[in-house]
Structure to design on (150 residues):
């Protein structure tokens, strides 16, 4: 089907149109076995950490005191953005050998503070307008690392 005002596919520099991946030969069907990705949002003390502790073999990365009453595996509390990245790399590298099946970053707003501290210079105050691009780059690094763990 072609629409009258539809744009024509762009031609690459060589002039030959690239083959489309959107063909019937590439259509798949059926369930896919993948671990879920879950983001929990709610006020303090509502049970987010307790819920996460009930997931399969969790390992917690984050602020220590949120899980004091839970019998869970905790990585050392990161004190910097570099510690967070090191923790994610450790989980990616050693998680399966340790039997960890679920990565829990708890709480996320605490992680934002470490991101902000990582983009400002000594004695400088974080400003969302002037530091937004640098902070976004750090968040992308975190999300890419979490994606590799997944």
């Amino acid at each position: 089907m072609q629409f009258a005002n539809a744009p024509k596919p762009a031609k690459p520099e060589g002039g030959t149109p690239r083959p489309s991946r959107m063909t019937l030969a590439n259509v798949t069907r059926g369930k896919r076995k993948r671990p879920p990705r879950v983001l929990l949002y709610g006020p303090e003390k509502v049970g987010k950490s307790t819920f996460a502790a009930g997931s399969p073999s969790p390992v917690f990365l984050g602020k220590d005191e949120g899980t004091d009453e839970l019998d869970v595996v905790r990585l050392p509390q990161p004190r910097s953005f570099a510690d967070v990245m090191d923790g994610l790399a450790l989980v990616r590298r050693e998680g399966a050998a340790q039997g960890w099946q679920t990565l829990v970053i708890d709480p996320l707003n605490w992680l934002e503070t470490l991101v902000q501290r990582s983009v400002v210079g000594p004695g400088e105050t974080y400003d969302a307008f002037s530091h937004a691009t640098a902070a976004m780059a750090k968040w992308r690094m975190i999300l890419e690392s979490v994606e590799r763990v997944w």
